[in-house]
TrEMBL record:
PROSITE patterns: GNAT. GO terms for molecular function: acyltransferase activity, transferring groups other than amino-acyl groups. Residues 153-312 form the N-acetyltransferase domain. Pfam families: Acetyltransf_1 (PF00583). This is GNAT family N-acetyltransferase. It comes from Amycolatopsis coloradensis. Keywords: Acyltransferase, Transferase.
Amino acid sequence: MNSHAIAAGHAERLATVDALLPEMPALEPAEGAVSLFATEGDSAAAGLSVRTEAGPDSVDSPWRALVEHRLEARLTGPRPEAALDALLTRWDEHLKAVAPPGDVETAATVVRPSRDSPGSAELLRRGFAPVLVIAVRPADRLAVTGPPATPGVHIRPAEADDLKTAVGLELELQRYDAQFGSVTLREGAEEAITADLSKQLGRENPTLWIAELYGRALGMVRVQFPDETSWIGDRVAADRVGYLSSLAVAEPARSSGVGSALAAHAHQVFDECGTEAVLLHHALANPRSTPFWYAQGYRPLWTYWQRRPAVP
């Protein structure tokens, strides 16, 4: 069975799993990538392993291992879990040849549709854990009158004087998420965050808002509009995709309504500009963010299964 036949069977199978998944074509060989195939009885799998690297000072480095081997897979047949297991055997053979054993800055990652559950047990047996999720919220969930007001909470666009507050909130968020494996704390994080957030302040079309609780700045939310989301927009079956970059609430203000007010404000902004779906990443094991985001209308779309080190 060739890669196009496997991709066709994969697409037919996923069409019954999740209507918000985008089309997933056959995996085409690419420079630097390794193509893998496996069969198990009447089931088959095709995979593409891609190695990427990030410098320790890069903007992306807190959210990943410095070296990542990512497997994209297509599964077809009556036993997709068996096909995935066979594919993972081929991949492990490849990883042992290219990845240093025990290196925690080298990760093996498989990103799978969250509702495509066959193969989950096989991943767990091989030491992978579901670490991160891309969650989706279809648009038009709010009334046209806007979100209800939260007593004591005022939301406004961030200004230049808010930079120190915003950096502190983002650092607090990263330290908290680092407990769950979705963030790696890096040296120079404060400088990198400061440079990144500085670009968001004073924009004509605001992308960063501050929440004040009785006059004290205690939360923020950052967004990307559809013209900035080409890097992730192909992960959902929608044309105009927004991305909620981060939402942070200071510890003293948690459970006060600040987070819900910020989320409702962001969704109203997205709805007003005609966004069809909003995506965000969150740590799956985070006991605060997981129930919070799903209460705001999100649900899992893609799950990142990770083994770090890539070769134990």
